[in-house]
């Protein structure tokens, strides 16, 4: 297999803000594999939260170049690289090139039924309560809104109340991005319950989330930053009710599918999520989304412009990829 890898920068339509900071562009790494006739692509997002950088991800992918002969495949990749963004890009590129080489879509290679459109969440960035209410009012026609919380000012109860007032009919999920502490937990959980929130992602920091096992959870709590691959599951029992499967953390579609199946077997509800990225990142995640209770694949909706042959979004309904994009 011939390999090429590059960094791409995609401007956002506006600032994207969570508890850890803001950004105005999506920085992605794209890996391409070719057997001389067929070409496959995979996209990943280096995640600074885990010490990943664009240059570091490129170097990790380039380090695999000597092994990419005719005997190397996705199974070998799982053993050769740790979970994370670099393996995700290569794993998804393998799915894509194999699908094109064999002439069957990736969902058939995975033994799945044909994917169908799914409703995706739409994200409201962290801001002052009034600004979040204004953003929510503009998006109130969408059936599912994801609300970023974790403000350092202690006003998250006001934020969720303002959003609920602005979008009274939307289903709300909340993502605190590790931004709460144990002293705030009960009050913020109660505020979310009062506003009819149906799921809360990662309220406490990874490694400091033991209070969740002792807390009354009036709203189901979903592991995000505490969730990587199947090895993470044992540490979540008793603390979390659901998991957020992200290909960039799991290390690709291969592990993500196995993770979702194992999590469901062990009684966790499954959510599929994304980083802010183009449709090329969302396309393989849509296969996991077919079996997920909550789908959060709105990355391209936050961009000023998506890549060509991108996914079709009809409001909040996202359609499976065409082969020209992936799979």
Structure description:
By secondary structure, the chain is an alpha/beta fold. The chain has two domains: 2-103, Enolase-like, domain 1; 118-318, Enolase-like C-terminal domain (TIM Barrel, Alpha-Beta Barrel), CATH 3.20.20.120. Helices cover 31% and strands 22% of the residues. The strands form three sheets. The chain has an eight-stranded parallel sheet with strand order 5-6-7-8-9-10-11-12. The chain has a three-stranded antiparallel sheet with strand order 1-2-3. It has a three-stranded antiparallel sheet with strand order 4-14-13, with no helix packed on it.
Helix content: 25-40%
* Top CATH class of the largest domain: Alpha Beta
State the CATH architecture of the largest domain: Alpha-Beta Barrel
Number of H/I helices = 10
Low-confidence stretches: none
Give the rounded overall mean pLDDT: 96
The major pleated sheet works out as: 8 strands, parallel
Query: Which structural class best describes the helix and strand composition?
Result: alpha/beta
Overall spatial form? globular
Quaternary organisation: single chain
CATH topology of the largest domain, by name, is TIM Barrel
Helix and strand element order: EEEHHHHEEHEHEHEEEHHEHEEE
The neighbouring-strand order within the major sheet is 5-6-7-8-9-10-11-12
* CATH homologous superfamily caption of the largest domain: Enolase-like C-terminal domain
Number of domains: 2
Number of strands: 14
- Rg to the nearest angstrom? 19 Å
DSSP strand content: 15-25%
Beginning-to-end CA distance, first to last residue: 17 Å
């Amino acid at each position: 297999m011939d390999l090429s890898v590059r960094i791409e920068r995609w401007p956002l339509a506006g600032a994207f803000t969570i508890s850890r900071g803001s950004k105005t562009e999506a920085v992605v790494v794209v890996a391409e594999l070719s057997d001389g006739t067929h070409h496959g692509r995979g996209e990943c997002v280096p995640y600074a939260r885990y010490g990943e950088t664009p240059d570091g991800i490129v170097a990790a992918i380039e380090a695999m170049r000597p092994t990419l002969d005719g005997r190397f495949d996705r199974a070998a990749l799982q053993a050769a690289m740790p979970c994370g963004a670099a393996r995700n890009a290569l794993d998804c590129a393998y799915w894509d090139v194999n699908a094109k080489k064999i002439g069957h879509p990736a969902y058939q290679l995975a033994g799945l039924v044909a994917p169908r459109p799914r409703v995706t969440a739409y994200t409201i960035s962290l801001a002052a309560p009034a600004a979040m209410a204004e953003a929510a009012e503009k998006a109130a026609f969408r059936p599912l809104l994801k609300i970023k919380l974790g403000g350092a000012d202690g006003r998250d109860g006001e934020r969720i109340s303002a959003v609920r007032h602005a979008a009274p009919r939307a289903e709300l999920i909340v993502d605190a991005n590790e931004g709460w502490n144990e002293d705030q937990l009960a009050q913020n959980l109660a505020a979310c319950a009062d506003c009819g929130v149906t799921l809360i992602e990662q309220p406490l920091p990874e490694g400091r989330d033991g209070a969740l096992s002792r807390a009354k959870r009036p709203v189901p709590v979903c592991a995000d930053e505490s969730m990587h691959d199947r090895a993470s599951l044992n540490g979540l029992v008793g603390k979390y009710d659901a998991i957020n499967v992200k290909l960039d953390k799991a290390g690709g579609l291969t592990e993500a599918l196995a993770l979702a199946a194992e999590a469901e077997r062990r009684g966790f509800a499954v959510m599929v999520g994304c980083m802010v990225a183009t449709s090329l990142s969302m396309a393989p995640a849509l296969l996991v989304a077919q079996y997920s209770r909550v789908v959060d694949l709105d990355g391209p909706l936050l961009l000023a412009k998506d890549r060509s042959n991108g996914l079709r979004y009809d409001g909040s309904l996202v359609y499976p990829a065409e082969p020209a994009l992936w799979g």
